[in-house]
Structures are given as C-alpha cells and as structure tokens.
Specification:
The protein is mainly α. It has one domain (2-62). The protein contains two helices and two strands, in the order αββα.
Amino acid sequence: MEQNKRHGGAFDRGSADSYYGRPRRPHLYLAATGSSPELTEELMSDEDIEAYHAGYDYNERHGDKKSWD
C-alpha cells in the first residue's frame, strides 16, 4: 500500500477528496494527477480501494479542510 501514497495514487486521491469536501469516489491515476489515465473503482484492486478509503479516513481524522472563504 506504500506505493499508493504517491501523488495520484489511491491514498493521495482519498485524502484530497476529503480535503476538498468531495464525496467518497474511489479512483486513482496511473501517473500524474489529471494528466494520466484515471482508474475508477470498478477497475481498481481491493488493495487500492482500501488505500483510497484509508486516505479519506486519515484526512477526516487528522487533516484539514479547504477553506472556500
């Protein structure tokens, strides 16, 4: 699961979704966020889905939230 902490990985995308107040939507990028193919939940491994939720949950517990002010 360590590899999923990379930018664009499942853990990173989960924590980013939480940070920006977006709903849970497991996904990851194969390389750079936004400029490489995106894998959605139905194409992700169970490990990657777990990593996404771990990132989301981590930010919910310990992270901050984007201020839209």
